[in-house]
C-alpha cells in the first residue's frame, strides 16, 4: 500500500502547493484544511495565468473563477463564474460548510463572499494577463493550444494518516472563453470527486471533454469496481478519447487518482502532463504517461 499522508496535485505549481498542504496538515492533522491551504498558494501565484484573479480573462477581458472542494463523506461545495474574489476555494468551502447548497455562481457567489467578509478585489487584469489578452484580441481566434492555454489549473487530492480523503480544484478556466462559460473544475464529479470508501480523483485540461464523461466520478467508480488508480485513469482517458473524437488532436486532459490505500494513478490524452506527489518522504514532480505518444 502507498504512504499516508499523501498529497497529489496537477502541474509544476503542484510542488509548492503540496508543500503548503503538507505544512497545513502537520499543523492541523486535517486533510480538508490541507487541500484548501495547498491550492490557496496557487491562487496567489502571479506567474500562474490559469488560476486566481491574475489568470487570463474571458473574451470580454474579464477574469472569472471556478473552484470546488470535497470531503470523502460526500460533503462538497463549489463556486463558478465568480469575479473579484482572490480565494474561490475558500468560498467553495463556505458553500459546503455554511449553506444548504452545493453550488453558487456568478453575482450570487460574489454576494456570499461579501457577506462572509471576503475582501473584494478591484477588477483589473494582471500585467501578464493584460498583455496576453491584448495580443489575443488582434486576431480574437478561439483556439486552445494543447498544454499551453489549457494548462495550469490546480486539482489536488489527498489522504490523511487516518485514511480520510479530500480534494480541491481551482481555476480561471480556459483563456478567452465565452463570458459565463463554466468548465469542469467546479462541477462535482467532473473536475473533482472524493469518496472515503474508495478514493479520489481530479482533472485538468479541456473542461468540456471532461464534463462530457463525468471524468472524476468515473475514475472513482472504476476504482470501486476493483481497478487500480492507474487502470481507472487509463480507462477514463480511453472513454474521453472515444467521446471527443472530433477535436482530440487539439485537446489535452489529464487525470490524477488516489485510492484509500494511498496508491496513485495518473494518465493524460497527450504527452506533457505532470503532477506533484508529496508525503512525509518528500515532494517531487512525476511525468504522466499518455494515450497518444
Ligand atoms: C477548464 N479544466 O476550465 C479547466 C482548465 C484547466 O489546466 O484545467 N487548465 O476547462
From TrEMBL:
Site location (Cleavage): 152-153
GO cellular component, one term: cytoplasm
Matching SUPFAM superfamilies: N-terminal nucleophile aminohydrolases (Ntn hydrolases)
An example Gene Ontology molecular-function term: hydrolase activity, acting on carbon-nitrogen (but not peptide) bonds, in linear amides
Highest taxon of source: Bacteria
Signal peptide from the UniProt entry: none
Coiled coil (residue ranges): none
Active-site residues (renumbered): 153 (nucleophile)
Binding site for substrate: 181-184, 204-207
Entries under Pfam families matching the protein: Asparaginase_2
Matches recorded under PANTHER family: L-ASPARAGINASE, N(4)-(BETA-N-ACETYLGLUCOSAMINYL)-L-ASPARAGINASE
Name this protein carries in UniProt: N4-(Beta-N-acetylglucosaminyl)-L-asparaginase
Organism encoding this protein: Algoriphagus zhangzhouensis
